[in-house]
Amino acid sequence: MAGLYLHIPFCAHKCHYCDFFSAPPAGDQLATWHLLLERNLRLIGTEQRPEIETIFFGGGTPSLLSPAQVSSTLACCRELFPLSQNIEISLEANPGTLTASSLAGFLAAGINRLSLGIQSFDNKYLQLLGRGHSAEEAAKSFMLARDIGFTNISVDLIFALPGQGPSDLEQEIEKLLALSPEHVGIYGLSVENDTLLQEMVTRGQVAEVDEETYAKSYLQLNRLLSAAGYEHYEISNFARPGFRCRHNQAYWQRKTCLAAGAGAHAFDATGYGKRSAIPPDLMNYQQQLNRGQNPAELLEEFDQRQAMAETLYLALRTSEGVDSAAFAQRFGISLAEAFPAALASLSPHLQQRGNHYFFTAESWLLYDHLISHFL
User: Fold this and answer.
1) Which residues constitute the domain of residue 150?
2) Interval 132-148: pLDDT, tens
3) Closest C-alpha among 264, 246, 295 to residue 57
């Protein structure tokens, strides 16, 4: 069983905070991207043919693809790989790129999970972030998707925005809950290098939120969404029961995930695991595929110690945490034997329920510091 990630590295324009690999499509790049993906998939299919449980169109802005392109790519997947009967097929979408026709086409093509990058329901923050849609367009896109038949919709929301107080955040959640999405992703605004937001901060046009405000906002979101019936199942993710993102869960469980598209990352769970990536270079990507070469490059191959550490700190991103019995069975050594010093250092934060060790939401605020004990 495996996941499949398909990267669409195109955006109509770059958002002010974004440092991900994406670019405006030039010439016929967007119109022919699915053909390159399919060529990439055929090369992968000559090496591996696992049953695919999840497919995720990520980006960039995958909703810039036409429904016909998505349909063609999924047909290629069906030809090359056995697909699970209850496969989850997700598509990331920006509200400004969606129409009734495209939504109906995506649904007909086989997309059964839509991830909407709304980010905020406040126009002043959308303008600050450089988003290409208004709050009204965001709500309209959601309701249109629902009316057309999407029954599994995720909404992304950015918090810790400059000047955003508790009442502002509460209003954001009220508007989100009025839509009743099945899944919510929350992401604290961070200032990344080589972004327009960094320039704005440097020029004094925008002030970064301090750590105390960030923490209060995070815990406020945890409280409001939990009270509304959402499970806080991972640091940044909430879901109605039965609607967790299975594709992302596979990452945190170190399951095999194939990947196609320039900038895409893959993981092979064989042995202790190895991670590969396709360089974020559109020209090189096309040239290698034209030569019949797999463009993926090996990034790292794990030994037992590295695999144990990654198993722990990825599992601790989730509400279930790490299963100590499964860990011992997988690696032939107990948690206490493998990381005695780390477990002792984490005792104030690491909670235990049966065989499971986990962090609370309060400890997730210190996640980067806490996992350093395993590195």
Assistant:
1) 2-251
2) 899 999 999 999 999 99
3) 264
